[in-house]
Amino acid sequence: MPSTALILCGGLGTRLNSVSNGYPKCLMNVNGRPFLSYLLELLNSNNFQDIVLCTGYNHDQVQNKIGFEYKDCSIRYSRETSPLGTGGAIVQASQKLESEWFMVMNGDSYCSFDLNAQSLLNIQKSLIFVHKVNDVSRFGTVKFDKQNNVLSFQEKNAKSNPGYINAGIYWLHRSSIDSLSKNTFISMEKEVLPSLLGKLQVVQCDKGFIDIGTPISYARADNFFNAQP
Predict the structure, then answer these.
(1) What are residue 50's phi and psi, to 5 degrees?
(2) Which CATH number describes the domain made up of 4-129+166-226?
(3) What confidence tens digit (pLDDT) does each residue in 24-49 have?
(4) How many Å apart are CA 115 and CA 101, to the nearest integer?
């Protein structure tokens, strides 16, 4: 059975609208290619073969641009007709899954990792990928102990302290979402992740992180990917 990853691509991207003019965030041009292609490349290199794009706003543009395959990966779509939030989009897409374990990635952020699909299956634990930054004020923080067990999630605030942020990548078992209501707006960050405390461990990805959620961060994307090995 192929390993599956969900990519959350349904956001409205209002913070980026001054430069996107309503174009889907995940398709924004970075070095002459859609931002989403970097996520697809990362998943392909880690032996994920089944990718579900969770779309909503401008679904047709995403499907027309990306299509139904990328190298060794097949691509399917889970389209929401009304906003379901990050958690609700996962619940809807889970109805298309055959595997018990699956990857989830935000469609507007990138953090490189080198845990391939088989290694993740062997871990058999729910995981959240984190990245260390010098200023957590824009992101909020993930607190964890020496055994990498997540202790808490803290909302973003005005303090510019160093710390670990949620990199927008998760490895989950379908039991973590099976009890959630379908066709309901659910926040991954505010509702799903806190419910997993005591079961969730961190994976540190230290090869660089970027999100393109604001014009300033999007402007850095070309140089970020040019510097990647």
Answers:
(1) -125, 115
(2) 3.90.550.10
(3) 889 999 999 999 999 999 999 999 99
(4) 14
Mean pLDDT of 205-216: 88
| Number of other residues whose CB lies within 10 A of the CB of residue 70 | 17
Q: Please report the beta strands in the chain, taking only residues with DSSP state E, as ranges in sequence order.
A: 4-8, 29-30, 33-34, 50-55, 69-70, 73-79, 101-106, 109-111, 126-133, 141-144, 150-154, 163-173, 200-204, 209-211
Instruction: Give the other-Cβ count within 10 Å of 85's Cβ.
Output: 21
In 3D space, the residue among 62, 65, 23 whose CA is nearest the CA of residue 212 turns out to be 23
Q: Which residues pair with 166 in a beta bridge?
A: 130
Q: What amino acid occupies position 171?
A: W
Rounded Cα distance between 222 and 20, Å, is: 15
Q: State pTM to two decimals.
A: 0.93
Residue 39 pLDDT: 96
In the chain, domain spans: 4-129+166-226
Q: Which pLDDT value is given to residue 186? A: 92
The stretches of the chain forming alpha helices (DSSP H) are: 17-20, 35-45, 59-66, 85-94, 117-123, 193-195, 215-219, 221-226
* Residue listed under structure tokens 């070309």: 222
